[in-house]
Specification:
Blueprint lengths: L3 H9 L13 H11 L4 E7 L6 H4 L4 H4 L2 E7 L4 E7 L4 H17 L2 E7 L17 H13 L5
Parallel strand pairs: 3-4
Antiparallel strand pairs: 1-2, 2-3
Helix pairs in contact: 1-2
Amino acid sequence: MQSIESELEELGSGMMQDSKFIGRGEVRAKVIFSRLFNHQKIATQVPIESLISYQDFVFLDQEFKNHKFDIVVYRPNDVLVIEINYKHGNKAAQKWNDVFKPLLLKNACVPITIDDYDCEKFFKGEEPRDVTWDDVLDIVQLLKLKKITF
């Protein structure tokens, strides 16, 4: 049986250059979510159009229509929509709280942000880097705080 250390290392190796990921920490987050939700479908850079109703989508400004969510976990009873927010300014936080979060909730999704102030160890250090146990613990603690079960 493979140890979790070697499994995390295997998942993380070679993924640092994945061009679909844009921001800091997204590759490591995908590795962690793949491990935590290993029996669920996980997608990256998912367009908002695929997560909300057509009626909601058509009323969005073009900027919002072009948005892609970092990681989406499709579970049997819900859909986790994860945004990685490393030192985003007030504008990004305001867009999340005023537009994306209400739309996702309305469309039976569970919005989750991974912020630098919630997951300090996760964002510590230079990128790219391998997944550490501290990274995993940061994400698990955040999910526990948001009452997300596995």
